[in-house]
Design goal:
By secondary structure, this protein is of the alpha/beta class. The protein has one domain: Trna Endonuclease, Chain: A, domain 1, CATH 3.40.1350. It has 3 helices and 8 strands; from the N terminus they run αβββαβββαββ. It has helices at residues 13-30, 81-95, 119-127, and strands at residues 36-43, 50-58, 63-68, 102-108, 111-112, 117-118, 135-141, 146-150. Strands 1-2-3-4-7-8 form a 6-stranded mixed sheet, with helices on both faces. It has a two-stranded antiparallel ribbon with strand order 5-6.
Length: 152
Amino acid sequence: MNKPFQRIGSKSNSQAGSDFEISAQRFFASQGLELQRNIKVPVGVNAITKDHAFDLGCEQRKVIVECKSHKWTKPGDNVPSAKLTVWNEAMYYFLVTPPGYRKIMFVLRDYSEKRNETLADYYLRTYKHLIPNDVEFWEYDETRQTAVKLSL
């Protein structure tokens, strides 16, 4: 079956996302931060809230993490604009999260030779106006299994 939007080398895009969440969980554990998957936190505007499941989190330490393993489109390293709308949605959920949470956007490092920047660099440059002040951006290098906190 032809699956033109399937991540190369993965059984499915959802499996690629799940595998990336596990990589993020392992990385943060190596930094002394134990996180559980699928943490539900009440979010909302005004007095109306509804539980939203974040990819990772810790209730006791009030940490929530959204994980995104998106890449530049192939061929041509074009901007995956539809996928970046999901990043924007994550920014909104971070914005309407109750105060006091540490908010982390954990993304896959995908470098474009053509553009001379990573997808995260592109997002920060292009969508900075949508990123709440208290959100941390971390970029994960899957080859080295390391991550760096990016400057906003």
